[in-house]
Structures are given as structure tokens and as C-alpha cells.
């Protein structure tokens, strides 16, 4: 038949039929797959460049920012839970008052951060979480954090609740008994954790800490979040 012939009147050969079949498969399968790969790569590139340029801080992925419900007690004997994180940026640090070095140095740095803030600290709070509830009473915590800044908040609570909160942020801690002495120290994360006003974990600030770097990263993060500098 006329329709079964190629231009020039030659009947189609098996090779020609295979090429035509390959062309149709390419149009139906390969090109859509190639287009998907290109679009996915473009999306990943856009995600990369949408991240703010930070000196030290690292943002948590958007899909893993939820903080599980927890219940602690602050140094004024008030409940400190997820609701207390709403509406403010929260810098959180885990430690204990008998810590010989990292804790006082970090709280001193946070005190400097509080001084460097360009506006009143009514939308920023600094929270010291004691992971040594057996020795850090509310009054002891109040005196300790107040030494670094009167607006700092000290919190502690049952060990199970401390574990829940620390795990939610990515922190760890553990008690190290000193054989024969009846005493112990506490190992804990040295990072700072930044929680956004939606009470979600938002950024991790690795140790060591410098106040000026923290401030710069914080303003960048806050602008990226949508509040503006």
C-alpha cells in the first residue's frame, strides 16, 4: 500500500521500523523523564540559593522543625512549656550551674549578645536549661542566670522532660559519676539553639561562640524568616 512505503517508494525495512518505535518511545518516556530531572535540579538549586548566607549558624530543614510538647519549671516556679516559646525568638543553652567553663563562658557571651541587640529585648529571650535538677533549685538558678543578665530565664524539671526538650532540639546530656567521691559532673551539648516565634527549632549555632558573629547571623536569620532586620 502507498502508506506503507517510505519517500521514494521504498518499502520500510525492519531497521526503519525499530527507529520509528525508538523515536516514539523517546517522545513518550525519555523526554518527560529528562524534563523532570531538569526541573528537579532547578528546584534544588533554587532551594540552595534561597538559604541565607550565615557565618556560623545552620538552619534546620523545614520538614523537621517541630518541638514535641514538654513541661519544665522556670526559676520563678512557673510552668515553662511550648507556649512560653511563642511570639519570641529564643536562644536556648543546656548546662548546669556547677559547670566550670563552657556554661559561664557561654552565658557571658549571651549577655554580650543581649547588649548588642539594636532594640529592646521584648521579642528575644535567653533560656538556660539546667540538666542537673538534683542540685540546681529554682532559687539557685535565679541567682546564677541573674548574675549574667537579670532578664535571663533559668529552667529545669524532671529528667524525662529535660530529655524530651533536649532531643527535640538535637541536644544531649549525661551524668558522669566520679568513683569514690560521691560527686559527679554533667556532660552536655555546647551548641546554642535558636527557636523562632512559632515555637519551632530554627537554627543551630555551633561552639565556640562569639557575640558579634551570633548577632550578625541572628539578624540575617530573622530577615530571612520575614520580620526584617
Topology:
Elements: H1 14-49, E1 58-59, E2 71-74, E3 79-81, E4 89-95, H2 102-116, E5 124-130, H3 138-148, E6 153-156, H4 159-169, E7 173-178, E8 183-188, E9 192-195, E10 201-205, H5 211-225
Helix pairs in contact: 2-5
What is the compact description of this entry?
The chain is an alpha+beta fold and 229 residues long. It contains five helices and ten strands; from the N terminus they run H-E-E-E-E-H-E-H-E-H-E-E-E-E-H.
Overview of this protein structure:
- The chain is an alpha+beta fold and 229 residues long.
- It has five helices and ten strands, in the order H-E-E-E-E-H-E-H-E-H-E-E-E-E-H.
- It has helices spanning 14-49, 102-116, 138-148, 159-169, 211-225; strands at residues 58-59, 71-74, 79-81, 89-95, 124-130, 153-156, 173-178, 183-188, 192-195, 201-205.
- The strands form two sheets. It has an eight-stranded mixed sheet with strand order 1-10-9-4-5-6-2-3, with helices on both faces. Strands 7-8 form a two-stranded antiparallel sheet.
- The longest helix is centred in the first third of the chain and has 36 residues, at 14-49.
- The radius of gyration is 29 Å and the shape is globular.
Features:
single chain, 229 residues, alpha+beta
The Cα radius of gyration reads 29 Å
- Lateral strand order in the biggest sheet: 1-10-9-4-5-6-2-3
E-strand count? 10
Distance between the termini: 76 Å
Give the count of helical stretches.
5
Helix content: 25-40%
Q: Strand-and-helix sequence, N→C?
A: HEEEEHEHEHEEEEH
Mean pLDDT: 83
Beta-strand percentage range: 15-25%
Largest sheet: 8 strands, mixed
| Secondary structure category | alpha+beta
- pLDDT under 50 segments (min length 5)? 42-49
Assembly state: single chain
Shape: globular
Amino acid at each position: 500500500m502507498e502508506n506503507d512505503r517510505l519517500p521514494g517508494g521504498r518499502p520500510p525495512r525492519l531497521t526503519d521500523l525499530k527507529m520509528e518505535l525508538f523515536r516514539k518511545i523517546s517522545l513518550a518516556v525519555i523526554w518527560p523523564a529528562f524534563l523532570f530531572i531538569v526541573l528537579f535540579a532547578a528546584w534544588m538549586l533554587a532551594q540552595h540559593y534561597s538559604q541565607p548566607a550565615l557565618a556560623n549558624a545552620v538552619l534546620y530543614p523545614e520538614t523537621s522543625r517541630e518541638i514535641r510538647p514538654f513541661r519544665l519549671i522556670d526559676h520563678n516556679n512557673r510552668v515553662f512549656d511550648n507556649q512560653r516559646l511563642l511570639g519570641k525568638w529564643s536562644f536556648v543553652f543546656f548546662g548546669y550551674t556547677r559547670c566550670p567553663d563552657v556554661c559561664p563562658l557561654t552565658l557571658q557571651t549571651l549577655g554580650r549578645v543581649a547588649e548588642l541587640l539594636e532594640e529592646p529585648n521584648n521579642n528575644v529571650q535567653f533560656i538556660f536549661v539546667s540538666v542537673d535538677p538534683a542540685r540546681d533549685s529554682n532559687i539557685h538558678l535565679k541567682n546564677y542566670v541573674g548574675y549574667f543578665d537579670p532578664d535571663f530565664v533559668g529552667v529545669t524539671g524532671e529528667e524525662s522532660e529535660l530529655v524530651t526538650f533536649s532531643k527535640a532540639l538535637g541536644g544531649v546530656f549525661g551524668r558522669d559519676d566520679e568513683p569514690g567521691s560521691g560527686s559527679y559532673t554533667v556532660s552536655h551539648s555546647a551548641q546554642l539553639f535558636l527557636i523562632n516565634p512559632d515555637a519551632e527549632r530554627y537554627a543551630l549555632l555551633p561552639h565556640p561562640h562569639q557575640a558579634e558573629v551570633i548577632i550578625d547571623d541572628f539578624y540575617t536569620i530573622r530577615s530571612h524568616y520575614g520580620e526584617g532586620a
